[in-house]
């Protein structure tokens, strides 16, 4: 028979384990903390989000094969009537995991333009939280602008003019 201190310790350890597991289950299912987007290191771009579909805080957060928070689309247009807009930015464009995919600015823009123009519209979302001009330029150098008809660059007040001037010396 086990000694009383060992038995109490074993029971206490079991209770702690059950509480930790229950807390994890509650955090993942009720609080929405279970499936965060995964960031991957990149030698040129610094970091990008791994393509995939995630659920965070009850919201759908989806990234296409180009690590854009946008629906999948081919790199080059297949329909000559298609209007393609690439929106480049930081966390403002990215939208964060607190917003469902359908509620971020680029999704709303795509929906509105499609309805108003009565033609196929693709809006790409070239962004990630805290991306600055060097990250954005590195992304565009690697992937290009996807046959875009228009490019919208959204900058925040945190972008220093010196940093922007340094990036502007490069040509795409």
How many alpha or pi helices?
5
Quaternary structure state of the chains depicted: single chain
Mean pLDDT: 88
User: Strand arrangement, largest sheet?
Assistant: 6-5-7
Distance between the termini: 77 Å
In total, how many beta strands? 7
The radius of gyration over CA amounts to 22 Å
Segments where pLDDT lies below 50 for 5+ residues? none
Range of helix content: 25-40%
Largest β-sheet summary: 3 strands, parallel
* Secondary-structure element order, N to C: HEEEEEHHEHEH
The domain count comes to 2
Quick description:
This is GDSL-like Lipase/Acylhydrolase family protein. With 172 residues, this protein is of the alpha/beta class.
Task: Explain what the structure shows.
The protein is an alpha/beta fold. The protein has two domains: 1-31; 35-168, no CATH class. Helices cover 36% and strands 21% of the residues. The chain has five helices and seven strands, in the order αβββββααβαβα. The longest helix has 26 residues, at 4-29. The mean pLDDT is 88.
Describe how the helices and strands are arranged:
Elements: H1 4-29, E1 39-42, E2 46-49, E3 52-56, E4 59-63, E5 83-89, H2 91-94, H3 105-117, E6 121-127, H4 133-143, E7 150-153, H5 161-168
Parallel strand pairs: 5-6, 5-7
Antiparallel strand pairs: 1-2, 3-4
Salient structural properties:
172 residues; alpha/beta; 3-stranded parallel beta sheet; two-stranded antiparallel ribbon; 5 helices; 7 strands; 36% helix; GDSL-like Lipase/Acylhydrolase family protein
């Amino acid at each position: 028979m086990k000694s009383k201190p060992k038995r109490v310790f074993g029971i206490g350890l079991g209770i702690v384990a059950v509480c930790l597991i229950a807390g994890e289950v509650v955090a993942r299912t009720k609080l929405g903390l279970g499936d965060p987007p995964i960031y991957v290191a990149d030698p040129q771009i610094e970091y990008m989000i791994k393509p995939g579909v995630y659920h965070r805080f009850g919201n759908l957060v989806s990234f296409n094969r180009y690590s854009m928070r946008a629906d999948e689309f081919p790199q080059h247009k297949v329909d000559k009537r298609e209007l393609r807009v690439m929106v480049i930015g930081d966390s403002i464009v990215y939208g964060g995991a607190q917003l469902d995919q359908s509620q971020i600015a680029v999704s709303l823009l795509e929906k509105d333009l499609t309805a108003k123009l009565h033609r196929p519209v693709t809006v790409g979302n070239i962004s990630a939280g805290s991306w600055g001009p060097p990250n954005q330029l590195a992304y565009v150098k690697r992937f290009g602008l996807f046959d875009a008809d228009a490019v919208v660059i959204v900058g925040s007040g945190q972008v220093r003019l010196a940093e922007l001037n340094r990036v502007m010396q490069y040509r795409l």
